Automatic annotation (TrEMBL):
InterPro entries: Secre_tail. This is T9SS type A sorting domain-containing protein. The lineage of its organism: Bacteria, Pseudomonadati, Bacteroidota, Cytophagia, Cytophagales. Residues 16-92 form the Secretion system C-terminal sorting domain.
Length: 95
């Protein structure tokens, strides 16, 4: 789980599962404060592959995301809160 903090207090938690995945993942965002949330997916060399606006009312129970068009490998997903990266985690896609 990736957690964002403000003044040391948790404000949002982002989780993508299953990890490793075969392309179908679920995005789960638990948030505390009203803010602009985005998921940014990058490849191993830091190029942005996807940027997805996250609406807490749609992602609190799990939002399906299809990444099956991407090649197998290691990717990084970041939680952006109001345009600032708060956390980054690794996602492994398998064939």
């Amino acid at each position: 789980m990736a957690s964002a903090t403000v003044d040391g207090r948790p404000t949002a938690t982002l989780n993508l599962y299953p990890n490793p995945s075969r392309g179908q993942v679920t995005v789960l965002l638990n948030q505390k404060a009203g803010a602009d949330y985005k998921l940014r997916l990058s490849n191993i060399i830091g190029q942005e592959i996807r940027s997805i606006a996250l609406k807490p009312e749609l992602t609190s129970s799990g939002l399906p995301l299809d990444l099956s068009d991407l090649r197998a490998g290691v990717y990084f997903y970041s939680l952006l809160v109001d345009g600032k990266v708060t956390t980054t985690r690794r996602l492994i896609l398998q064939n």
